[in-house]
Amino acid sequence: MSEFQIFSPKEMDSLRRAGKILGETLELMGRLVAPGITTKELDRAAEEFIRSHEGATPAFMGYHGYPATLCTSVNEQCVHGLPGDYVLKEGDVVSTDCGVLVNDLYTDACRTFGVGKISKEAQGLLAVSSQALEDAVAMIKAGVKVGDISSTVQATVEGAGLTIVSALTGHGLGKTLHQFPDVPNYGEKGHGPKLPAHTLIAVEPIVCTGKDGIKEADDNWTINTKDGSLSAHFEHTLLILEDGVEVIA
Ligand code: MF3
Ligand code: CO
């Protein structure tokens, strides 16, 4: 489908509820991330927390057969890291990407955390990637074109000397997890589809410290940087308004 979905006030309420649970899940992840915890333990805590809310379920589980609540991507892993027995250690960076489904509506958000004390390089990567997302949030409103968002993210990332992982993009969502439009993290101002009010998009800079390029891992899910450089990922689900956005999660 190459059409924007527009959400009713009732659907927006479901999205807000899903988004609140998702935001709290990611806050919980931020409190739990520490040297010694496994990515599987994070996953279990996220699943339990989401399911403790009546009518809320983990949105990624079962999506194209995905077996977990979270994607936990460590260091050179960009996205879709499978939770497992890996024990987080001081100096790692880990992204916790998660979705919550309420009344058949999807939300999707991600944060990357440092584990204990991290290097200056890793601190810079996290700061710039999250700043790129916030710069996009600050300029998005109805009437903005997708290319305007893409070029905003690109300017922040490249302006800081870091690299966009160009194969991975943001997306529309709501009735499905991924739908029209793609929201690339690089592009040209003034290009692409124009956002209407009351549609929903996920903006998600995926950034690395090395060269652009990805490589799929043997588990058929995890996507790594090709050159093994560090990667970070921040994502918000945004409801588009006439004069700005509502950060759903
Ligand atoms: N946030 C992820 C994305 O937009 C969603 C992953 S779904 C999964 O690609 F099934 F792969 F986990
Ligand atoms: Co996403």
What does this structure look like?
This protein has 249 residues and is of the alpha+beta class. The protein has a single domain, classed as Creatine Amidinohydrolase (Alpha-Beta Complex), CATH 3.90.230.10. The chain is built from 4 helices and 15 strands. The chain has helices at 9-32, 39-51, 120-139, 146-159; strands at residues 56-58, 70-74, 77-79, 93-102, 105-114, 163-164, 170-172, 179-183, 200-203, 206-208, 214-216, 223-225, 231-233, 236-241, 244-247. A 5-stranded antiparallel β-sheet has the order 8-7-9-14-15. Strands 1, 2, 4 and 5 form a 4-stranded antiparallel β-sheet that branches. The protein has a 3-stranded antiparallel β-sheet with strand order 3-12-11, with no helix packed on it. Helix 1 (9-32) runs antiparallel to helix 2 (39-51) and helix 3 runs antiparallel to helix 4. The longest helix has 24 residues, at 9-32. The mean pLDDT is 98. Cobalt (II) ion binds next to loops.
